[in-house]
Amino acid sequence: MAAKRTSSMLFRAVQQSRATDSQFLRGVSGVVSQQQTTTVNRSQLPRFYSSKPEAGKSLKIVGVLYKAKQYAENPKFLGCAENALGLREWLEGLGHQYIVTDDKEGPNCELEKHIPDMDILITTPFHPAYMTPERIKKAKNLKLALTAGVGSDHINLPAASDAGITVAEISGSNTSSVAEDELLRILLLLRNYLPGWKQITAGGWDVAAVASKSYDLRDKVVATIGAGRIGYELLKRLKPFDCKQLLYWDRQSIGKAKEEETGATREPDLETLLAKCDVVSLNIPLTEKTKNMFNKELISKFKRGAYLVNNARGALVDAEAVKEACESGQLGGYSGDVWNQQPAPADHPWRHMPNHAMTPHLSGTTLDGQAGNPFFC
Amino acid sequence: MAAKRTSSMLFRAVQQSRATDSQFLRGVSGVVSQQQTTTVNRSQLPRFYSSKPEAGKSLKIVGVLYKAKQYAENPKFLGCAENALGLREWLEGLGHQYIVTDDKEGPNCELEKHIPDMDILITTPFHPAYMTPERIKKAKNLKLALTAGVGSDHINLPAASDAGITVAEISGSNTSSVAEDELLRILLLLRNYLPGWKQITAGGWDVAAVASKSYDLRDKVVATIGAGRIGYELLKRLKPFDCKQLLYWDRQSIGKAKEEETGATREPDLETLLAKCDVVSLNIPLTEKTKNMFNKELISKFKRGAYLVNNARGALVDAEAVKEACESGQLGGYSGDVWNQQPAPADHPWRHMPNHAMTPHLSGTTLDGQAGNPFFC
């Protein structure tokens, strides 16, 4: 099967890179649909498509990226449709066809036209091309779905696996970008920043209105749900804030060395952890198991008035339950850059709920995040 | 002289506290007008006014604090006019007169009425009662001007010193509160947070418009101007962000141990430092020497597009020069909670300049900051 051949090519590239290149850069690719995470050196990506295709073997590669319009003039802004991840010259130079579009929704979109004969699909989590089982069924030639980022939940993994499609992503590419952004959001919520800024721009000055709901991070109990790459980087950044307690919930321990480094303690029982925390940050992948995990029932286990930060995936939480908790005061505030549908519809309940500090999905796509992402050539 | 007597009473309290109490809490009082900084135990404050006044020796104590209106219902919200720093019962119980007002400006304000016969003035930097030489001249009975916070630049120090008035403040009371807030502002500016939040609340979604000006803190050059208590706490919090370089400018070194702990390097030449930095945070007191220090000339020495964070004092910078630099792009953004006049007038140029992230003055007056401030009894 073509799909299997491509997959084994990727593994061969990995093997070769390990054998021949001692300078491993940050992780490039985790193979998701086969439940293996492995790293590929940046220099291996060209090797993956290393030779000019023979006659008739030109690949059709489709990229789905958001449009940057005037912002695309910045040559560092690679992750947009106009700049096509910086791959066009290289891929076309190798004789492949490279189509990039931002039009990804509905039966008449540009993406739909290419599904039946595309060989490779490149997507990002920022402007996700949702590969449903129906679309995967139509994608008869698809061998590889590459996520230029972390988190491939927009690809239906069981369907991709059944079809023999390799789903791969760029593990670790945006770890520090996202962890930084999470600390920003924790401080924003705790310190009640936004109402102060709004006052100033509206011509006002009322210290009490802001200070009366403003807290320090110092002496608070803070947890990350998930202590993988990003969760660990967040814990490291929380360390010098002299929190009362740093906790994490994960299926496995981060190990004694990292626990000592960060001062964090593992709490295996989620509800016990939630009841203690002033701040909770989500850093787990979205899977069938974690979808809507933070529903009304679980949110009721939080300490009243706690803050929830979610830069992982919007669908980890029940959107309505979060809105209700912000309205009732069960949550003191909610901030994140991820939504259960992206772009978020204009009437999404999170746009106007109280004490939110939401943005579009961008914490992993700073200019530095793009430059440091070894996928962007 | 009465003023000298009160001053020596304060010193005696300090001496006694050192002699009799081994449990020193966080610093309570720095004596400013005599250029000495010393600490007083929380329990010593009552000792300072320890005995019921003899007949005719009741002191007139005036507090100037902002009004919290409905927010004053929170009993933890001590630093407002209504809750009077939590001192009313105690001071009145000792037979003193305690007048608290928020009315501090102009010749007919409430404060003016009490200036001629007040013995002690208690103020905060959040709603500063500006004690000009003219006011000090009228304050014939004033012995002690206490700042319930850090920074007594709203008191004219040469005039207070000439009049024998002790000016004292609560050194260290809000160190971590302010340092936290500075890190928040650094991240806010670098990561271009506010435009993303504005998009969401306005019903929009344009990742490129935000991401095209969004950077990581990682690998940046960051400096604090002033490495006292707050500057040092900021450096500690910056450490795990893997900045390219952490620098500080101060008249003296923080010492080898703190330099090793934070990874920061002293750069004695200010202009050399500014030319290197992506982010600069001000943490120096406002004095005659530092007033308007960051004027057009000095701002022109910054690396183009650098970010400036100022939670120290608004008048350290030239307000117009900052506005022009934000407009021209010489500064990538400016954030702080301090203004050259507080409350800031409705037409202050910083309210609507590009890329600002200003709030009212509040970083040192979180509820935790108030609870942790040993002055608030």
Description:
Chains A, B: It catalyses: formate + NAD(+) = CO2 + NADH. Chains A, B: Residues 97-180 form the D-isomer specific 2-hydroxyacid dehydrogenase catalytic domain. Chains A, B: GO terms for molecular function: formate dehydrogenase (NAD+) activity; NAD binding; oxidoreductase activity, acting on the CH-OH group of donors, NAD or NADP as acceptor. Chains A, B: Pfam families: 2-Hacid_dh, 2-Hacid_dh_C. Chains A, B: Belongs to the D-isomer specific 2-hydroxyacid dehydrogenase family. Chain A has a 6-stranded mixed β-sheet with strand order 1-6-5-4-2-3. The first copy, chain A, has a 6-stranded parallel β-sheet with strand order 9-8-7-10-11-12, sandwiched between helices. In chain A, strand 11, helix 14 (319-328) and strand 12 form a beta-alpha-beta unit. Mean pLDDT of chain A is 86; it is low at 1-29 and 34-52. In chain A, helix 7 (175-190) packs across helix 10 (229-238). The radius of gyration of chain A is 22 Å and the shape is globular. By secondary structure, chain A is of the alpha/beta class. Chain A is built from 15 helices and 12 strands. The first copy, chain A, has 2 domains: 60-169, Rossmann fold; 174-371, Rossmann fold (3-Layer(aba) Sandwich). At the A-B interface, helix 7, helix 8, helix 9 and helix 15 of A face helix 7, helix 8, helix 9 and helix 15 of B.
